[in-house]
Please model this.
Amino acid sequence: MFSKACKYAIRALIYLASRSEEPEKTGLREIAAEIDSPEAFTAKIMQILSKQNLVNSAKGPHGGFFIDTHAPEIKLIDVVKAIDGTQSIYGCGLGLKSCSETEPCPIHHEFSAIRNGLANLLKEQTIQQLARELKAGKSVLKHHLN
Amino acid sequence: MFSKACKYAIRALIYLASRSEEPEKTGLREIAAEIDSPEAFTAKIMQILSKQNLVNSAKGPHGGFFIDTHAPEIKLIDVVKAIDGTQSIYGCGLGLKSCSETEPCPIHHEFSAIRNGLANLLKEQTIQQLARELKAGKSVLKHHLN
DNA sequence: AGTAATAAAGACCTAATTATCCTTTATTAG
DNA sequence: CTAATAAAGGATAATTAGGTCTTTATTACT
Ligand code: FES
Ligand code: FES
Model:
């Protein structure tokens, strides 16, 4: 569905948002530990998110990543587009060159309904909203099994 | 969503089914041409489908692939499972080790609804049914743009 | 000024997926 | 029996995704 990078990105952002009233920034190491992702790879992803202005960063001691609490909330679709591009959301389910209403693939009708449902979910849900539910203990960002 | 191999597999099977009242078998070359897929790669995929008994094959002159018209119709989910496995259908949308109702990821609730919709689609739709719509001119298996 | 902490950037590596090629085996027509 | 045909199978190449490492830039604290 989404690439691993994209999944890590969403988890990282939700974690960041979940502690964004803290004035302290959050370091890479902590993020990776809390979402159970490979540190160096997560760094790459954070770089992309930072360049796309989905997250802010500060170098140096006590530096780290943070989300601007005054900026508008981040929609999931913005994250997916930044990491995976649009093809994953709007492409044909059977791999035709494009999804087309006039030259539809055999599953177009049913599939596009589902895909639109997914796209709507991504447009409606925000990182911050999911972060609030996380803080309320309604969800988790990793499974510890050992 | 699905791997390329899986998309080719579904397209190939639909094409095969669409001409399965023809007693003649269909060669690899024709299949690949009709669904616009790389020939050798398609051969590999057909091998898998053949081993999983989703398709039959015959060697030699006038050989090729065919679908047993007396066997029960092939559900899309059987194809997806054969090529991509089950994780793509049942895994957590944010990449947690497993999708769990009791330890849900932040998007579990909304996402699993959509994923179940997709799973239902795959369970309900059959290759043969889609092939009939293809023959009725309601859909296409490739786009020619040149 | 000097040092430690931290993200940014780029080079690099590894694994999986996608794709091609070539040889072997089975089948059929003649 | 032979030649032609077509799938099966194995080896390998190319591409993409996933992941690591090293160096550089920036900042805070002494
Ligand atoms: S054409 Fe395949 S999903 Fe729309
Ligand atoms: S736990 Fe993530 S989708 Fe169910």
Q: What stands out?
A: The helical segments of chain A are 4-18, 28-35, 39-51, 76-84, 87-90, 108-124, 127-135.
